[in-house]
């Protein structure tokens, strides 16, 4: 292998360079260094991807905005239309419920009177 300092050929297992005396990295140090370099490279790639994606994202937002606004407007219109159409039905249902409640009250009162009368007759 080559010395990390002077680049001269040294024994593969050498801990120190026989020419310049520089300490050679151990296998675990080399693995750790490789890991750090890989992490740095991955971070750099991620950074570049994000930077490249920014204008694309802006473009998508700019392009999609009118469509989203149009869809929202249509949704609101549809909701208003539905509200207008159901309004009379809801009102009618409310009136019918009131009528039914009044009728029930009348029938109940009438029944109570009949029961009272029958009790008195005994
Ligand atoms: Zn050396």
Short summary:
With 122 residues, the protein is mostly helical. The protein has one helix at residues 27-121.
Q: Name the helix and strand elements from N-terminus to C-terminus, one letter apiece.
A: H
Helix content: over 70%
What is the gyration radius calculated from CA atoms?
43 Å
- Distance from first to last alpha carbon: 123 Å
Beta-strand percentage range: under 5%
Number of helices: 1
Report the average pLDDT across residues: 91
Count of distinct strands = 0
Shape: elongated
**Main sheet makeup:** none
Hetero groups in this structure are:
zinc ion
Class derived from helix and strand content:
mainly alpha
Q: Low-confidence segments, ≥5 residues, pLDDT <50?
A: none
Features:
122 residues, mainly alpha, 1 helix, 0% strand, binds zinc ion
Task: Describe the secondary-structure layout.
Elements (H helix, E strand, L loop, with lengths): L26 H95 L1
The chain binds zinc ion (ZN).
Zinc ion binds next to loops.
Describe the 3D structure:
By secondary structure, the protein is mainly alpha-helical. 78% of the residues lie in helices and 0% in strands. The protein has one helix and no strands. The protein starts with 26 loop residues before the first helix and ends with a helix. The model has no long low-confidence stretch (mean pLDDT 91). Zinc ion binds at residues 3, 5-6, 8, 17, 19-20, 22.
